[in-house]
Design a protein that fits this description.
Length: about 270
Amino acid sequence: MPEMKISFLGTGSGTSTNRAHTAMVYDCDDGTRLLIDTSSGNSVARGGSDLGIPVESFDKALLSHHHPDHMSGLMFVQFVRALARQDAPPLDVYLTEESLDWAIKMCSANYLNVAEADRQCAKNSDGREVMRWTVVQPGQQVKLGPATTAYCFPADHISGAVGWRVDTGGMGVVFSGDTRFNPELVKASEGVRLLIHEAFRTDEDSIYAGNHGHSTGGDAGRAAAQAGVTELVLTHIDSDFDANPQPLLDDAKKHYNGPTSAATDLLQITVPS
């Protein structure tokens, strides 16, 4: 039976103090391995090591937006990957124009195995490509493996922010990215097996969440219900709910009756078709 394995390397919001920032690994049915966002610092390398997922096993990364809690770990990912796998092909990074602007700035600022970067790729001091950019537009689908595709849709967060739907082996998984309640996400999620949705605050703090470009637990539940997804997992948990995300789950369950849980760092789940 086709299946996808999802490993949560980081499930905290940008202000979380007890969780790593956002990053996930999708092991797709056709053998394709995807890194979804790159957290910050060395979280991907550390969490991947704990789960037996070495950084050098990544060849493709999908980025949701350029905020540092989702993207600043990219430099460490490519650096550790190059140290462990010196003959590795360039890391293929899928991102929007706005995120690429910031990726190039990061490359220029820290020099971790990168001597130059332009709008096509980043190269080391030997002139070898270490990262290769593929710019995507909201509404675009890209082929990532023999039976794996990804579709990005606009997120209501900052300019250039997107969410991602990945389909493999006849099943679909959607990651919201950072977003307010988003009709585009609902449309992209129709009928998928799993929706991974940010839940920054409870419904009681909906104005605060919205002002910061984020969703509540109730927003995630509404999206799941309207899209008719099979299962909902909450992520991007703020510090107030690190230890006890139950209030977020309670808000989601006011709208959605399907299986609902909150992700934790290093959680692994298998998604059947």
